[in-house]
Amino acid sequence: MMDTGIFAYDFGQIALIGGILGALSTALLGNVVVLRKMTFLGSGIAHLSFVGVGLGLLIGVEPRIVTLVVAITSALALGYLSRKGIHEDIGIGVLFSTSMALGIILVNLSKVDSSRVMAYLFGDILAMNWNDVKVLAILTAIILTFIAVFRDHLVYSTFDEDFSKILGIKISVIYYTFLVLLASSIVLTINMLGIILISAMIVVPAASAMLLSRTYQGMFKLSPLLSTSSVFFGLILSWIYDIPSSAAIVLIQGLAFFFAFLIKIFGK
Fold first, then answer.
1. What is the DSSP string of 119-139?
2. Can you give the pTM of this predicted structure?
C-alpha cells in the first residue's frame, strides 16, 4: 500500500494544498505558453527574477517583493519587444546570462547565508506556510477567472491575430495581462521548485496534454490534472525515498511526458 504518511503532518498538508494551487496556475498559463511556442519565456523570466532575489537580499527588502517587480517588468518589456517584431526568445537570449551574472554579483555583495540563496534556486515546497497558500489561492482564483473569460481569445490570437483584431478582440491588453499573471505565477511558485526547475511546471504538463488532446479545450482540462497529480505523487515519492520534493515532482512530469509521447506515437 502506498505510504501517504507525509499528509498526516501539517507541513505535508500545506505543501499539498500550496502545490496544487501552484500547479493549477502554472498549468493553465502553460497551455498558452506552449500553444504560442513561448516555452523559453517561463525559464527566461525565472532566471531574470534572480536579479530581484539578489537585489532584495542586498538592500534588506523581502526578496519576493523585489523579484515580483523585476519579473513583471521583464515580462512586459519582453512582450513589448515581441509586439515590435522581436521574438520573446531573442530578447530572453540577450538578457538570460546577463541577468544571472548580475544576480550572482548582487547575492555575493549581500553576504547572506548560502542556504537562503539555495532555497530560491532549488525551492523547498515543504517550507511553505499558510500565508504562502493564501497568496497562491488569490492568484490562482485570478488566473482561473482570466482563463475562463479570455481562453478562446488567447487561442484565436495565437493562430490568427489579424482576424482576432477584426473581431474586436483587444489583443494587446489580453497579452500584457497574461504576461503579468505568468510572471506573478512564476515568482510565487519559485519556493516550490526553485528558479532552476520552475519552467518545468509551466511547460511539461501543457506539452503532455497537447500530445494527448485532440482539441485545445481538452488540453486546458488535462494539463491541470497532470500537473496537480505530479505534485501529489511527487510529495509521496520524496517522503518514501527521502529525496528532494522539487526533483521528484519534475521527474514525474517528465515521465508523464515520455508516456504521453509513446501513446501519441503508438496509439495511431
1. HHHH--GGG--HHHHHHHHHH
2. 0.91
Distance CA 246, CA 190 (A): 10
The answer to whether residue 170 is domain-embedded is yes
Residue 35: CATH number of its domain: 1.10.3470.10
According to the model, what pLDDT value does residue 196 have?
81
- Angle of CA points 176, 196, 48, to nearest 5°: 40
88: domain range? 8-261
Reading the block at residue 25, the C-alpha cell is: 496556475
Cβ(21)–Cβ(136) below 8 Å: yes
Residue 140 CB: number of other CB atoms within 10 A? 20
The answer to whether the CB of 18 falls within 8 A of the CB of 249 is no
Question: Quick check: is 50 in a domain?
Answer: yes
Cβ within 8 Å of residue 12, ≥6 positions away: 6, 126, 235, 239
How many domains does the chain contain in total? 1
| HSE of 108, CA atoms in CB hemisphere, 13 A | 6
Q: Is 262 exposed, middle or buried (0-12, 13-18, 19+ CB in 10 A)?
A: exposed
Q: What is the pLDDT of residues 192-227, one digit of tens each?
A: 888 888 989 999 999 999 999 989 999 999 999 999
